[in-house]
Amino acid sequence: MAKRETFWALLEQDGPDIILASETWLNSSIFEREILPDNYVFVSRRDRTNSTYGGVAIIAKHDMEGTEILNSTTSEFIAAPFNTSSTKKPIIIGCLYRPTDNNLDYT
Rounded to an integer, what distance in angstroms lies between the CA atom of residue 90 and that of residue 107? Predict the structure, then answer.
């Protein structure tokens, strides 16, 4: 089974509300609908521009209320707040990937 079909099967079987993904290997020529089923969206996505590897994404069901928090760093860090019915304030979820070949200045 190809990687894409395996990923879709896991989404259909388990149906997570939010997914944190690292090592996405995506680039600007790959669109959301090529990767995700119709009921999921990229809330935030950062592709690595200098390599075909790496990249991070926050993926959520289309009815989840999440918005990207813009940050000025070039590292692979993204974050998004999500509103919940059980908390007064949004929950902020972050996704970070630090390649093993980079020093702490990258992060």
Answer: 25
The answer to whether residues 95 and 22 touch, using CB atoms and an 8 Å cutoff, is yes
CB-based contact 59:19 (threshold 8 Å): yes
Range of the domain at 13: 3-97
Tell me: the pLDDT tens digits for 42-90? 999 999 887 778 889 999 998 888 999 998 777 889 999 998 888 889 9
Asked if residue 105 is part of any domain, the answer here is no
In this prediction, residues 3-25 reach a mean pLDDT of 83
Mean pLDDT, the chain, rounded, equals 85
Question: The CATH number of the domain where 33 resides is what?
Answer: 3.60.10.10
Question: Which residue, 63, 62, 80, is CA-closest to 71?
Answer: 80
Q: Specify the number of domains making up the chain.
A: 1
Q: What pLDDT shows up at residue 53?
A: 83
